[in-house]
Design goal:
alpha+beta, eight-stranded antiparallel β-sheet
């Protein structure tokens, strides 16, 4: 009953009008007066921000703020965190090409919209990284590699916070999402960027055919999720990579087997 009520309430508010209103306000000059309360509410550390908080003309500009380069050093291991956020879950794929988040089982084929591509990651590993509204929302490359595929799926975006993942209609595989497949030194990997909270905005800032580990490649315009997938017997997660732990851009995530 709780799940159905949650889904119904989200459906009633999740449409183009709501999205447009949220986006319009966040990008308006009036929204700049919200920034101090936003910082206070979410307890955002400002010392690492590249520009002074008073310099942002809108809430949206603050939300996609850049950080000082030295605040996020890149670890030497082949796979690092692409975002600041919380590790929701990580581990091995279930039943070949299925993965688990908040007790909901997802099909990688549904997420990718491509059965053949999903088959290449059978019995591999995955990790789900959640970005709250308080987090830095620029996305960096988790590894160095050449882009094999990059495409977008989905139309609407539902919340990907705790309640959203637990009660939503498969938000990870149903939301607006941008999928990138990289060919790396340890084989292929998938970087799946999932939109959230009615705002389908994942903006690429790097249009090259290859990514360097640690470099910025895109940003989200609201709280979102990144899911990484790896082929079987290619990587092992580091000891610091644990469910429920916070992680920052550039911190070590995995090493080659």
């Amino acid at each position: 009953m709780k799940k159905k009520l949650y889904q119904r309430s989200i459906e009633l508010t999740n449409g183009p009008v709501t999205s447009s209103l949220i986006r319009s306000f966040a990008q308006s000059s009036a929204s700049r007066w919200v920034i101090p309360n936003y910082i206070k509410t979410y307890k955002i550390a400002t010392a690492d921000i590249e520009n002074h908080v008073n310099s942002f003309p809108t809430l949206h500009d603050f939300f996609i703020r850049k950080l000082k380069a030295e605040s996020r050093p890149t670890a030497g291991l082949p796979v690092v965190s692409p975002v600041d956020g919380k590790i929701e879950i990580l581990g091995d794929m279930h039943e070949g090409i299925r993965f688990l988040v908040k007790n909901q089982q997802y099909s990688l084929a549904d997420l990718l919209g491509n059965n053949g591509l999903a088959d290449a990651y059978q019995n591999g590993k995955y990790i789900v990284l959640y970005l709250s509204p308080a987090d830095y929302h620029r996305i960096h490359s988790p590894a160095s590699g050449n882009i094999l595929k990059q495409y977008v799926l989905g139309k609407k975006s539902y919340p990907v916070n705790g309640p959203g993942l637990m009660y939503g209609k498969s938000p990870i595989s149903g939301n607006y999402r941008m999928i990138t497949e990289l060919e790396t030194a340890f084989g292929s990997m998938l970087v799946v960027k999932v939109g959230a909270m009615f705002i389908n905005s994942i903006k690429l800032t790097n249009n090259q055919n290859s990514w360097e580990k640690g470099e910025e490649v895109a940003y989200f315009s609201f709280g979102s999720t990144v899911v990484l997938f790896f082929e079987e017997n290619r990587i092992d997660f580091c000891g610091n990579a644990k469910s429920g732990e916070q992680i920052k851009v550039g911190e070590a995530l995995a090493h080659m087997v």
